[in-house]
Design brief:
The complex is a heterodimer of chains A (about 650) and B (about 325). By secondary structure, chain A is α+β, with helices and mostly antiparallel strands. Chain A is about 25% helix and about 15% strand. Chain A has five domains: about 120 residues, Tumour Suppressor Smad4, CATH 2.60.200; about 45 residues; about 140 residues, no CATH class; about 120 residues, no CATH class; about 120 residues, no CATH class. In chain A, the strands form six sheets. Chain A has a seven-stranded mixed sheet with strand order 2-1-12-11-10-7-8, with no helix packed on it. In chain A, helix 14 runs antiparallel to helix 15. Classes of the chains: A alpha+beta (about 650), B mainly alpha (about 325). Chains A and B meet through helix 1 and helix 2 of A and helix 6, helix 7 and helix 11 of B.
């Protein structure tokens, strides 16, 4: 606190009016020192934040001399220089700048010091206010949101909507690739690999990408991959769902027939109900279209993945809608009825009669006598014969299944049984040795057999040759040397020859009165008609051996070579369980549906559908595009063309 | 009635019902008298996080439906569930983009702006589930996936924005120290003026440095400067560095040029003022920038949505 002289001051504070004029407030003050600052307790109050609360003080140190001392630590500008303390002479009319204010000192009336305080740096005005926004807000550094929004939206519309739309409107009628057309037009054979599945995607199409590929919802399946830039191949009309005619442009009805006649299909369908039904009807999406089942744009092979519900939509309760149907109702795979095999009911040489019968307790009339258990034994004459004859045997020494049952070319089922190939090693039809030649009877031709035997005897009677031995037909017990009971055939004349011939024929056919002792009667039912002509006397009951028991489904044996870890013979027996005990050929040894379920399980209903060990949907075994337009419920052919091979469900897919 | 007359401690029959748990009907008045928590409920916990619960429920239901359905061949936007989720999602996207309209309508209405914002945030988050389930997780280079990508950008930028709104305002207040924006500018202007005055007696080199500060100092600068606060090449910083060098050199040489020292002092003060303003600018820029993504991408999304829906039905 200075104890200096009291100075009298005239303080003028100048403020500017809005119109530019000045407001001057004058007051007088007498004090030892004048405080200057922002605070209201200061003698000269300067209202600006750049001024400290107590910024400086003025004191008179000598008459006409004033000291300026800062108290706020912030210097003031005196005569253009920043100082914290200065002594000024009033006579020099000094100027002190504090913040935006200017204090001008001059001599006043009566020795007083006149201090004029005015603002020299104008406060921020409206021009600066606009600057404020551009400085503090991002508006000054970026285009406006509205502009950016327009830019983005128009770009997206131009590229994603307008460009493909123009392309769509301008392209003419679509051209289908010739190679795909040709391949689709070929009717499908029963291919072993369920050949409709295309493992590799087809070649990328020529012509580069098209703008409307931007509208694709996913990659095409392998088979259709060449159509990637040709949307118009299937999407013919705007706002119209892909129609059957688009599909059939390539997949012609000749190459890919329907499932049944259109009228039958329409009658058998369950009517679609609920919201989905209403929606489908409203948008003209009837059931039974190609795209009801085959959904494209789901990648790789999934166009061939078909929902089970499509099959059961018709086949569940079909009897109520199609009263004359021969097909059993199927609700779903877990409730699939047991198989009804197509069995021979009346064998005949040309056209045997077949009947579809439930497997349970079924009997087949093949006309042949054949016990499996005898031929599969490991310990009996058959086994011994097999070893002695050097036939391929299985590990346990018995005759293996595949000795008779040879896979066919497609590896689906087996070649028909042929007597000479499959039975001839043991059931020999040799009847005489003629020098170096072993005379053999032909199988399957009873009239020829009788005639050959008769002619053999007669020729020997008329023109005897040396070295002709008759072979006995009785079978030798195993263990003894297979002696050929060589008896020189000596005949006493034609009458003798005829009689010997007749008895030989009798012996061959039916064992000459001893029941079951002939060669033919080993396997056949022989009847004696009593005709005088020896070639017409004995009749063999016709034999028709079935080789396709379940023609309504596809079962490829090649894909079932192992069962439960067993391979080879054990695998056969694992499914065909009755073979080793079967004593009669009337036994039907085909396994039922329960056997299939061991692997093609019917998983229990669970919250998250789980995969079966192997395919468990309808199209695992059944086809659809089979062309069963005929009226008869029985298979079109037997032993001939198999049922059409149908789609293979992707192993990744699941079903309920 | 006897029942009313008993129990002397019972509330008189005409007393107002206890406020706990009761709710008056929506009367549409500007000031409603509902029970209210004393503590402030932000838009994220509006009405005890009602919209968070609603959105969570919707998401769970959609997820459940997705898991339980088993379409053949696989989930995609064209199954019945796909159509349902797509319709719901598209409706939600359009409603969400109407927040800008609601913002500009003054008045409490049945649902306050705070309620709308709360619903906007949470239903927008639930779109992550609904939109992605609608795709069946099948994404490719097409307009459909573009719509999904734009939707995700919008949602994620919104999430980012919320996190900014939750953390930055506090920092803004802390940085401000009672200054308004105009006052920050004014402080800098004042210092400029003082610099101008103080630099009068300087020689040409030093005067050039002061001019550097006066003329080549941009308070805010470019977008990246505002977002990342990189002002090292700015006029004032360079001027201050050069002047400080001069001062230390002078000190070592034993000279003391008061004028230059004053300049240094002023430049330092200006740098401090600039720093405060720039910190403020940086916080504000970060508070605003996310919306420059959120809003334009929303409009682009609406365009992509239009293209998506149109193309789906055109190539049905």
């Amino acid at each position: 606190m200075h104890g200096g002289p009291i100075m009298s001051c005239i303080i003028r504070q100048v403020a500017k009016r809005a119109d530019g004029g000045d407001i001057i407030r004058t007051r007088t003050l007498s004090a030892t020192e004048i405080s200057v600052g922002r605070g209201t307790d200061c003698d000269i109050q300067l209202a600006d934040l750049a001024v400290m609360l107590r910024h400086a003080r003025l004191a008179e140190i000598a008459p006409g001399r004033v000291s300026v001392e800062t108290t706020g630590g912030v210097p003031v500008a005196v005569a253009g220089k920043f100082v914290t303390r200065a002594d000024v002479a009033i006579a020099d009319a000094p100027v002190i700048d504090i913040g935006p204010f200017r204090l001008s000192l001059s001599a006043g009336d009566g020795g007083a010091i006149a201090i004029t305080a005015e603002r020299v740096v104008p406060p921020i005005d409206t021009a600066d206010a606009a600057q404020e926004v551009s400085i503090f807000s991002l508006q000054g550094a970026m285009p406006t949101r509205r502009r950016l929004a327009w830019l983005g939206a128009l770009t997206v519309l131009a590229i994603m909507l307008v460009l493909p739309l123009v392309h769509f409107l301008r392209e003419g009628p679509t051209t289908l690739p010739r190679d795909m057309l040709a391949e689709a037009a070929q009717p499908d054979r029963a291919a072993p690999a369920f050949g409709l599945q295309v493992a590799q995607p087809r070649a990328t199409p020529a012509g580069g990408p098209a703008p409307d590929e931007l509208w694709s919802t996913g990659s095409l399946s392998n088979a259709h991959a060449s159509l990637a830039n040709n949307c118009g191949a299937c999407h013919n009309k705007a706002f119209v769902s892909v129609t059957d005619s688009s599909c059939q442009a390539c997949h012609t009805p000749a190459a890919l027939p329907g499932h049944a006649s259109a009228a039958r299909l329409a009658d058998s369908q369950m009517p679609e109900g609920g919201i989905l039904g209403i929606a489908h009807k409203a948008f003209n999406l009837p059931q039974g279209r190609c795209t009801s089942c085959h959904k494209e744009h789901e990648g790789e092979a999934t166009v061939m993945t078909v929902a089970t519900s499509f099959c059961t939509d018709c086949h569940d309760g079909m009897k109520t809608r199609l009263g004359d149907t021969q097909v059993a109702d199927v609700q779903d795979w877990p409730k699939h009825p047991d198989f009804r095999a197509t069995l021979v009911s009346a064998p005949a040489p040309g056209t045997p009669q077949f009947t579809r019968t439930a497997l349970n307790g079924a009997r087949e009339q093949s006309g042949l006598l054949y016990p499996h258990d005898l031929h599969q034994s490991t310990r009996n004459a058959v086994a011994n014969m097999a070893q002695k004859q050097g036939l391929p045997t299985s590990a346990d020494g018995a005759l293996p299944c595949n000795y008779c049952h040879k896979p066919d070319t497609d590896q689906l089922r087996f070649k028909p049984i042929e007597m000479e190939a499959n039975c001839g090693e043991c059931h020999d039809l040799a009847f005489a040795r003629d020098g170096d030649t072993l005379r053999t009877l032909p199988h399957g031709k009873p009239a020829q057999v009788a005639g050959i035997i008769r002619d053999f005897y007669l020729s020997q009677a008329i023109a005897p040759r040396a070295g002709v031995q008759r072979i006995a037909f009785e079978r030798r017990l195993p263990g003894r040397m297979a002696e050929v009971e060589a008896t020189q055939l000596r005949l006493g004349g034609i009458g003798d020859a005829r009689a010997r011939a007749a008895s030989a024929v009798e012996a061959v056919f039916n064992g000459a009165g001893t029941a079951g002792k002939g060669i033919c009667t080993d396997c056949h039912v022989v009847s004696d008609t009593g005709a005088t002509d020896i070639t017409k006397r004995f009749a063999i009951a016709p034999v028709s051996i079935n080789d396709h028991y379940l023609p309504k489904g596809q079962f490829p044996h090649s894909q079932h070579k192992s069962h439960d870890g067993k391979t080879g013979q054990a695998a056969c027996i694992a499914c065909h369980t009755g073979v080793l005990k079967s004593k009669a050929s009337t036994d039907v040894l085909i396994p039922g549906v329960a056997n299939c379920r061991e692997c093609h399980g019917a998983p229990p209903k669970s919250l998250l559908p789980a995969a079966a060990k192997a395919g468990a949907s309808c199209d695992t075994c059944h086809g659809f595009h089979e062309g069963n337009t005929g009226a008869t419920p029985l298979p079109a052919g037997h032993g001939g063309a198999a049922a059409r091979v149908a789609a293979l469900r992707s192993p990744r897919a699941r079903s309920w | 009635m006897a029942s009313k007359a008993t129990a002397p401690n019972a509330a008189p029959p005409n007393a107002a019902p206890p406020r706990q748990g009761t709710r008056k009907a929506m009367t549409g008045k500007a000031v409603t008298r509902g029970p209210r928590d004393v503590a402030h409920e932000g838009f994220l916990t509006h009405r005890r996080a009602r919209w968070a619960k609603i959105a969570a429920t919707v998401s769970l239901v959609a997820l459940g439906a997705y898991l339980l359905a088993d379409p053949i061949p696989r989930h995609n936007g064209g199954t019945w569930l796909g159509y349902l989720l797509g319709t719901i999602g598209a409706g939600m996207i359009v409603w969400l983009s109407l927040l800008g309209v609601r913002k500009r309508v003054i008045g409490s209405k049945p649902f306050s702006l705070k309620g709308w914002t709360s619903a906007h945030v949470y239903l927008g988050l639930s779109l992550i589930v609904i939109g992605t389930l609608h795709t069946g997780f099948q994404l490719g280079l097409n307009v459909h996936t573009l719509a999904w990508v734009l939707m995700m950008i919008v949602i994620l930028s919104g999430l980012w924005g919320i996190s900014l709104y939750a953390t930055l305002p506090e920092k803004l207040s802390a940085n401000r120290g009672e200054f308004t924006q105009l006052q920050m500018l004014e402080a800098i202007r004042t210092l400029d003026r003082q610099l101008d005055t103080a630099a009068q007696p300087l020689g040409p080199d030093d005067a050039a440095l002061v001019r550097l500060s006066l003329e080549q100092c941009r308070i805010a600068g470019s977008l990246s400067q505002r977002l990342f606060g990189s002002y090292a090449r700015d006029g004032n910083a360079r001027a201050l560095a050069a002047i400080s060098e001069r001062v230390t050199a002078d000190r070592r040489a034993g000279r003391a040029d008061e004028a230059v020292q004053q300049i240094q002092f002023l430049l330092e003060r200006k740098e401090a003022a600039l720093s405060q303003a720039r910190r403020h600018i940086r916080l504000k820029a970060r508070l605003e920038f996310w919306l420059y993504i959120h809003v334009p991408v929303t409009l682009a999304l609406l365009a992509a949505l239009l293209a998506h829906i149109l193309s789906v039905f055109l190539y049905w």
